[in-house]
Specification:
The protein has 248 residues and is mostly loops. It is 7% helix and 6% strand.
Length: 248
């Protein structure tokens, strides 16, 4: 009898986990769930609500997270490589050491997220909201983040080399020891930003705005800086586009 009951429960999915139900599409909400270490590889999770869930070490490799809500999740060292997270929300999420290589995050909301030491190479963040994010020691080499809002973000030792940042907003951002080598930041807005000891070698900064910014000890050698009015910024010890130390 007991064996028959067990077999019946298994057949009916009575012992299915929340993760199983999410993968099977039988539930669209798992707020605050412990999903640490679970593999959602290639799963269709479009529109799911995982607010506040524990996603530590979970894998979403190539998963569909379009429009999903992951606000306030703990996703330390989680794998989001190659996801489709178009217009997904990661507000206030802890994405420390997460992997987001090649992730599609256009139009996503990552406001206030912690992306310390995250890996975002070639990720697409076009028109995304990254206000107040922490990108310290993150690698976003060759990322596409045109028209993206980085207002008040922190870039400490961040690798943005080769990134596409045209018309993006860095107003009030803190940029220190960061790399923007060969990045395209044409028409970007650095109003009121604090930028120090960072490398803009060969970057495209044409028509960028630096009004009220503080620029200290940066390298702009070979950068394209036409129509950038450096006179509107507070400048000290920068290597300018012609390779000369400022003031020499």
């Amino acid at each position: 009898m007991k064996l028959a009951l067990v077999l019946m429960l298994v057949a009916q999915g009575a012992w299915a986990t929340p993760a199983d139900d999410l993968i099977a599409g039988q539930r669209k909400e798992c707020r605050g769930c412990d999903l640490s270490g679970v593999s959602f590889k290639k799963a269709n999770l479009a529109g799911v609500d995982l607010t506040g869930a524990n996603l530590t070490n979970a894998s979403f490799h190539r998963a569909n997270l379009r429009g999903a809500i992951l606000d306030g999740v703990t996703a330390t060292a989680a794998n989001f490589n190659m996801i489709d997270g178009t217009q997904a929300s990661f507000k206030g999420a802890d994405l420390t050491r997460s992997m987001m290589y090649g992730a599609q995050l256009s139009g996503a909301n990552l406001e206030g997220a912690n992306l310390t030491e995250a890996r975002l190479q070639t990720a697409r963040l076009t028109s995304a909201n990254l206000k107040g994010v922490v990108l310290d020691r993150a690698v976003a080499r060759d990322a596409v983040a045109n028209n993206t809002d980085f207002t008040g973000a922190s870039f400490q030792q961040t690798n943005m080399n080769g990134a596409h940042l045209g018309r993006s907003v860095f107003a009030g951002a803190t940029i220190n020891y960061a790399g923007f080598v060969n990045a395209d930041a044409s028409r970007a807005d650095f109003t009121g930003a604090s930028i120090s000891l960072s490398d803009f070698y060969g970057a495209d900064l044409r028509r960028a705005t630096v009004t009220g910014a503080t620029l200290t000890g940066n390298r702009f050698a070979t950068a394209a800086t036409s129509e950038v009015d450096f006179d509107t910024a507070t400048m000290s010890g920068n290597f300018m586009a012609d390779g000369r130390l400022q003031g020499e």
